Model the fold of this input.
Amino acid sequence: MQTISTNFGTSPGKAELPLDFTGAHITQGASSAHRLYQALCEIIVGGLVKPGEPLPPSRTLAKQTGFRRNAVVTAYERLIADGFAEATVGSGTFVAARIPARASEARKPKVTVEAPRQGAFALGCTHIDERALQRFRGFVGRRMRAFGDEHLHYGDPRGSRELRVAIADHLLSARGLRCDPEQIMLTSGTLHALRIVLSAILKPNDQVWCEDPGYPTARKTIAHCGYRAVSVPVDEHGLRVARGRTAATSARAAYVTPSHQFPLGVQMSMTRRLELLDWAREAGAFVLEDDYDSEFRYDGAPLMSLAGIDRLQRVIYMGTFAKTLFPGLRIGYCAVPEQLIGQVAAARAALDRFPATLMESAVADMLNSGAFAANLKRVRKLYREARDALATALQDASDGHLSVPVPSQGLHLVARFDPAVELVVASRAKQAAGAEGWLLADTFSRARPLPGFVLGFSGHQVPQLVTAAERLAKESLIALRASARRR
Done:
């Protein structure tokens, strides 16, 4: 510790003032005034100088520390402003009689927040082709060089019209959804869109149908916003609308993933789609369509979006660039019925005013230039290869104990045990293998849970997936044998 001796003048008993300029409380590289302020705070809070004791004159402290006098004056002024010192005209500067509560070192919080892990099978990971990334860098650079006034004031709650026009064109060509750019609102993602839209169309404690099994994070978001998530079972045709009518007759909304049900991967049949739309019209309710991975179709043509069938009357369509480009972009969107434009825009403005503007134009450039479509084509091929490798490795290494249907769409697959297998088998195998992804049972709410895994394959290297699949299959067999011995 570097100690600086000082002379208090009026307090000869205090010949030295131990100012430490090297400890953890000092911001190295900061200005002299800031470091001196930190050192003085440290000794004041630490009780090395007492309330009411004088601090040395600025000239004296400047000479003894080697700092310029104006740095000492600035440090003293900040001590006074923050309540650590008091100045008396003609008498000098003194340690405050009452020192503000302040920890000399930051205390480590007892609560920790862990970021999602990104190992093999983690969901939400993506890959962006290097050529697309180069194009995106170029678009961002060009837009920054042409920095405009639109970034210097609050904007439209729905986001830039340029990107909304590009999204409208994309939805028409890719999903058969015809909508005006005025009906599109940019968000930071699907869950953000869900919060905004629900706040615009529902009252507290209103009921919302949710698929069971389904996307747990959406269910949590609905509940967190003060609405009641009502579980509606799913079968091989999708959401069982008749069961929903019975379970929640007064529901005002339904959250569904009709193109690729999460997690089971089934595609809602046309009969069920029309049945769901009939319910929405009769009940005066709205259907929230989460079309989270429709761009990743590997076999055959996808069904038209639910919003496309409905012509955007009772359906609110939600999409995102988190998977088609990358999650760090934090840009999603929703398309709303014309009758809801005003109230949804007002809800957005009340929540967080408007979207971030810097990246909007660059994303519009990606869509309009063809770079977005080219990237999708290339990564779709990578994801197909990853899907096939993962499914094959799981089936081969599990000796047939895991059923692994190969999905025709999406970025994850489901590996299931026989329904008679104990749920603990999957959880023990996953823990022992150190695997990411989800337990299939965790996606169920009220329906009888099934043993198995929900495993992401996008954004992961094939060798990494295969190795992790073999390890998970091995631990699954061990857990199965242990379960059999207990019976």
